[in-house]
Amino acid sequence: MTKQFRVLYKVTIIILAILAAMLIGSIILMTIGADVFKTYRVILFEPLKTTLQLTEVLIRAIPLTIIALGISVAYRSGIINIGGEGQMAMGILGTTAVALAFPELPKPILLPMAILAGAMAGGVWGFIPGILRAKLQVSELLSTVMLNYIAAQIYTFMLRGPFLDPAELTMGSGTPQSMRLSTGIWLNRFLKGTRLHTGIFFALFLALLIYLLLWKTNYGYKMRAAGASARAARYGGISVTWYLVIAMVISGAFAGMAGAIEIAGVHRRAIEGITGGYGFSGIVVALFGGLHPAGIIPASFFFGLLIVGADMTQRMVGVPANMVNVLQGVIILVIVATKMILADPYLMERVWRKYQGIGKKHVEVEA
Amino acid sequence: MELTQKKITNLRMEHITKRFPGVLASDDITLEISEGQILALVGENGAGKTTLMNILMGLYQPDEGRILINGEEVHFRSPNDAFAAGLGMVHQQYMLVANMTVLENIALGFKAAWSPYKLDLGMVRDRITEIAKKYGLVVDPDAYIWQLSVGEQQRVELVKTLCLGARFLILDEPTSALTPQETDELIVLLKNMSSELSIIFISHKLQEVKDLSDKITILRHGAVVFEGNTHEHSPSDIAALMTGHEVDLPLNEEPAPEGVPVLDIKNLNVKSDRGFLALKDLNLTISSGEIVGLAGVSGNGQRELAEAINGLRKVESGEIQFYGENIANKSPHHIIEAGMGYIPEERNTEGIVPSFSLKENLILKDTEHDEFSNHAFLKNKAIDKNAEDLRVKFDIRSPNISIAAGSLSGGNIQKVILAREISRRPKFLIAVYPIRGLDLGAAEFIHKQLLEIRREGIGILLISEELDEILDLSDRVAVIFKGQIQKVLDRKDANRRSLGILMAGVKDDQTV
Amino acid sequence: MNFIVNILSLGIPFSVALLIASLGEMFNQRAGVFNLGCEGIMAMGAFLGMLVPYSIGQGGPTSGMYNVLGLGLAMVVGALLGIFFAFVVVTFRAPQGIAGIGLQMFGVGTAGTLFRHFIGGTQSVPGIGNFPIPGLSKIPFIGPIFFSHNVLVYLAFLFVPLAWYILFKTPWGLRVRAVGTNPRAADSIGIQVNKVRYQALAVGGALAGLAGAYLSLAQVKMFSDEIIAGRGFIAVALVYFGHWHPVKIMGGALLFSLAQALQLAIQGQGINFPYEFAVMLPYVLVIIVLAFSRESQLLGPTSLGIPFNREKRI
């Protein structure tokens, strides 16, 4: 098999995969009678046209990056974290609690404390499925989903009860949200006229941290070994279950931090619907980014683009914003299938022989 | 069953070629067998015997070549076609569904009993009774497969194949999991059956080949290297042809060492995956500088013993004294740090992390040590140097040290494991089936290395099914049967016969 | 006494969506594939089931027929989604857990997108009414509990013995169990492993679609984005809990729905208990149940989650 053929084969499959994903999306768009090309154009290019829109894309990319980093740590360690949504909600509660409890503290103390509280709350929410899987073999796929629903209820309960904005009580409008948090936890918005906040640097810093952890330290080595082959890792003296739990705690803590950054940078109070599917999108971003920080950063920009773009399709071409979920689902399915196709040497060999056969025929015809 | 009842008077495979990625599994193979004959298909592991038979059964499609029955070309697109033509195969790993009964397992292939809404189990039961009578094969149709012993499962396989109308039997290493006694019974049975059936029988045990077959075909590296009549050739001729040259693996010819006991196992009880006791009050002592071979038919507790010593399986009761410390139920990490080296049975999935690079696999057990890490940060230069050194020293054939270990050949993977285990300077080594499935060159290299570290005073527990390997290397031989050590023999008292009797579960010197 | 009758007569129809979906998932898992996308297929089923009576038969005299059409459409599309999933995890052998999440997002997203376009807002349908069985429904206690429900409730419970019969007494059931436990054995004996897995996923998908349509047509009588509310995932959990056996699965489905009915009844009694904690109860219950139901290896599909590859040499 020539090297040239290998490259050609891989590129062809990736192009086919992209086409397949777009085709499935198109079927849904055609069902609702939308203009397929215009829709894709709006989703992919419209948000890039103004600075304001572009910063909105970046704002979406911040929590996506942080959550996806956490999910990739778990995934690489052999545990799939679908609980980002719940962990993020718990993180927001942790941050809010600290911000409400100590409104007077100066920023250099309060902000780190609040983010840490968010990380801890998310970490606890990641620890539960981790320990359940390690000790009782409970499938994390199911337990994390259930914990999402549980966290959503706790979140609503807190916003309607203990954290409810006193102003809502007196005004009686009944919107379940917290009061505006102390400025001590506000992240600076450094670009005038936009909401883009310093959380973006924090996200990049975390990406570097994860890169170092996974590829440069022996902890990362052990986590990746546990995920790549639990049996070999156990044989090598690595406590697979311990690293599984650690990975889930890190994963949860990252989702929690994403929540903390989101309220500190964007909303500045806890409101309903704040997690907005970031936990699920984070899975897609992690996979799309090849479970590596260097891939996750551009991937989260791309999915931030999809989210903002899908919001705009509603207005511009009448396509509901739910379309972004359709695309995310399709992208997961296509990625996992494509990975398997690319990793199948038997298929490649078969195609190679066909390809050679065609080559031979050409030669014969020419002769 | 609606099958052609026509006899198979002649079966011929012509110019069969089959490629797998990177491997030529069958290389222009031609073979022929006539009615009432028993053909032995012989060759080392990986010689392509099973692949060839899977092609005959329609499980694989050949890339080139054809199959003829009674002179007519046939095309088997699936096993169904092969069954319809009267072929049946008993695979080496029994093809039975553990959570179904014997009856259901046979019904699975018995299409005459199928109607869309109902399964006619009565019809299947009648058929089983008929076959059982005809061949004297007794099975309980209502037993679940998981309740049966290995020997019983094999009988079920035979009954199944015959119930489905086979008039031509293919047996893939039928004796590999049987005791010598069960093997003898099987050989008598097959001899009787051969009056009505043709049989192809895959083996690498030369004695059986001599006892049973009329004709012999030897495969090496996917190609036929020899064909002939069995009675014209001695086992040593056959062995030489099988391996390509006279078998001359290194021998342990040194005097018995005078070491001190370092691994002392007392009354060890360990459960198997299925929850019954796989080791029952097992006792065994091994000294420094000696190789103790553990002989036995696989499935008698060898795996459980190796895993228990290495902390990978829970010890129910008993002690494992290792250099004066009881390591029973200690963590694998603790035991590794105590100086235990381990070459596991499953080299591809347990001994290495397949997706990790060669150099990463060489530090699997040492990521915490100062040699390779500095305050948790890995020392890349030291890791690279270590890998380059070991690659040369252990003759690991790979394009570079960054290639995924799983992409190497079996022999090279085993060298990676060996390199890691030996270079860590263990105080003791457990080697499980260290040369299974390897080519002779790699096997020789590995045996030399084992003898080398023995000379350095390291004790070795060698677990193997190959009596030759055990007899070549061991200072003492322990025989395991049903989770207990039957007897420990000195090298001078151990021979194929004495070990075979012990492996069958006969203790002391009772006559068989 | 009335209180208990209330809970039981409420809980039994609640169990139907879970029961149907988990029986479908049972066939998937018995064949060796676990389909976490069940939630997504249910969402599609819920939307499509309602779409037909809403758009063509609104309240008309023949709405019963449109309901049947809606259920049928939900099953057909459910089966197609099951086949699509099979394409990804059986043909391409993609890891089933993460692929299932993809299918779930795809299904929920598509249902939401189409719903906004074709229906929008909170529209309700007359749906499937109750059909008290003449005579039997008049029996005190027993009548209201067992014989005063809509037709689908009776059918769903009749399906339990039928599923048992299919799984254990028909050649197809035999094949399904074989390919989920030892696909190599099934293959060696001439059974097309992947074909059986496709069939099982189609059946499972059709049942998940039906379960979704039951929610929108018979239980809630409208569609919303949150209509499934994790029932698809709970259905998957119930299959583990029920050890892949239809009767035990039915027990699990009843346990959950009775807990839910109890919670509603307690709310109805005006006991002061935070609503949110009552709602989260079933999800907590799932985790507890999963923690205490270890898989029994000998009886279950031991090749669950492992793609079949004949040429992969060991």
Keyword list:
heterotrimer, A: 367 residues, mainly alpha, ABC transporter involved in vitamin B12 uptake, BtuC, 2 domains, globular, B: 512 residues, alpha/beta, Rossmann fold, 3 domains, 6-stranded mixed sheet, 17 helices, 24 strands, ATP binding (chain B), ATP-binding (chain B)
Overview of this structure, please?
The complex is a heterotrimer of chains A (367), B (512) and C (314). In chain A, 77% of the residues lie in helices and 0% in strands. Chain A has helices spanning 3-31, 36-45, 51-76, 84-101, 107-136, 140-160, 166-171, 199-216, 218-228, 230-235, 240-267, 278-288, 293-317, 323-342, 345-366. The longest helix of chain A is centred in the N-terminal third of the chain and has 30 residues, at 107-136. The radius of gyration of chain A is 23 Å and the shape is globular. The model of chain A has no long low-confidence stretch (mean pLDDT 92). Chain B is of the alpha/beta class and 512 residues long. Chain B folds into 3 domains: 10-243, P-loop containing nucleotide triphosphate hydrolases (Rossmann fold, 3-Layer(aba) Sandwich), CATH 3.40.50.300; 248-339 and 427-512, Rossmann fold (3-Layer(aba) Sandwich), CATH 3.40.50.300; 354-425, no CATH class. In chain B, 31% of the residues lie in helices and 27% in strands. In chain B, the strands form 6 sheets. Chain B has a 6-stranded mixed β-sheet, with helices on both faces. Chain B has a 6-stranded mixed β-sheet with strand order 18-21-22-15-23-24, sandwiched between helices. The model of chain B has no long low-confidence stretch (mean pLDDT 88). Chain C has a single domain (2-122, 150-292), classed as ABC transporter involved in vitamin B12 uptake, BtuC (Orthogonal Bundle), CATH 1.10.3470. In chain C, 70% of the residues lie in helices and 0% in strands. In chain C, α1 runs parallel beside α6 (151-169) and α2 (38-55) packs across α10 (231-241). Chain C is globular and about 60 Å long. The mean pLDDT of chain C is 89. Chains in contact: A-B, A-C, B-C. Chains A and C meet through α6, α12 and α14 of A and α4, α10 and α12 of C.
